Amino acid sequence: MKKNTIFLIFLLLFTYSSISKDKRYKNIFTDKESIGGKKIKKLASKELKFSFPVEGREYLKFKVKNLTIYFYPEKIFPTVRLHGYIKAGEIYDTKKQVSKLTALLLRESDTQKMKNREINDVLDFDGSQLEFIPGRDWVEIDGKYLVENEENFLKSLSYLVARPIFSEDKLKVVKKRLKGEAKRSDDVPFLLCRKLFYKIIYGNHPYGYFYTAEGIDDVGIEDVKNFYNKFYTPGRIVLAFSGDIKTGRIISALKKYLGESFLTREEHRATIPEVKMEFKPGVYICEKKHVTQAAIYFGRLIKIEKERDLYGISLFNHILGGSSFASKYTQQIRDIEGIAYRVDSKFETDNLTGALFLSRCRTKLESTYRAIADMLWIQDGFVNRRITAHEFEMGRSGLGNGFIKNFNTVDNILNLIVKNEILGRNISILKNFRKEVYNLSYEDLVEAAKRVVSPENYTYVLVGDLKEYEGRLKKFGKIYRVDEKGNMIKK
Predict the structure, then answer these.
(1) pLDDT tens-digit profile of 393-413?
(2) Residue 167's domain spans which residues?
(3) Dihedral of the CA atoms 285, 286, 287, 289 (nearest 10)?
(4) Rounded to 5 degrees, what are φ and ψ at 201?
(5) Which residues pair with 286 in a beta bridge?
(6) Could you give the C-alpha distances from 456 to 12, 227, 478, in angstroms and in order?
(7) CA-derived radius of gyration, the chain
(8) pTM value surpassing 0.85
(9) Domain check: are 72 and 201 in the same one?
(10) What is the rounded CA–CA span in Å between residue 332 and residue 379?
(11) Contact 73, 246 (CB under 8 A)
């Protein structure tokens, strides 16, 4: 611990010694109130009152055999929105990419009752939408339909989920498309940087290859069928309907079209691979010739030990780089220095395992070092209490009040509640979020920052034509060269 502390102090002093006296840093941490802030204070306003929706009153929860269904009625428009979750994401892979291929193939397959072309024709004629979206932890179902077309929509959904017919020909088409999409994303430095960052941070864990096409060719049609039979069971599916709904009618239709044989399908118990809390320090550079901008990702895995950690680190993230134009990153790097248009931070907690904190930026090649040094300097401002009381209050208010925006529509509300349950969290996290944020003290913010800020443990991933700038970048850690698949390149 002592060794790490000495290294951190040395790194900060060495990195910032040449810029700590720069006048451009003087006004970033300030108690000065903005002109807009002063005007807003003069406007008459009522105190914001918000009560969390109550199960059994605002929203309902039903069990049909082992299938879980949520409803949130709102009779404004004659439409219904569906958010569905199937616990069959990449984290459950029995073979690399089999989850992704199964989800995509499911939507494009014929069924025992209807051809896929017929389903598409019906949905298109009715103006309905239905999509299966692969994910790292679960497969999402995204749907929307008019009430008058409910029967057709639920029939199509049920047949695709419960009675698919997987074929080699369709699998080849989906594989080819996925590989093409992966290749095109590698042509975009920022997307390539994201892929490499997750690959290096998570290694061989499924989170590490989710953004890639790695392993697609090794998946056969039998792998898809076996994965479907194991993980597409009613106990692993949650459906959430919101809008102009009649619960009895929807339940009856789902029973009818899913069928008894599917609703009583045997459950397969599965364990998820835990993310190992280990650091991959260093500067990983993927050289991309003739690219005039550098893409930057850096960060580390975070261990969430108690619920309060979520609130403190969320506040740190909000003030640092998560609040868009109001963030310290944007104020310094975009507004004062003008070396990047997009720069932000992200605190990833919607994972079944392994929370992650990251910072990212796009800048000119020649300002790559400066952008990273700026971000580290700003992070250090939290640890060493340069954030002012005014900035703390503004950030706390912005995060607490901004949380209410998640409840602007009933489908957003229901989606939050369902995701929270799937993640195995107590509903109190959502109910008390705003109150707990306002209960945070300045010391809580500092302690949260200390838990995250760790330059000596950060994984820095850079993409661009950066060879001539490596000399300065060595100050952030040992230089490693990687190819576009994340493999180490020997010197």
Answers:
(1) 999 999 988 888 878 788 888
(2) 60-263
(3) -140
(4) -60, -45
(5) 463
(6) 10, 41, 10
(7) 25
(8) yes
(9) yes
(10) 12
(11) no
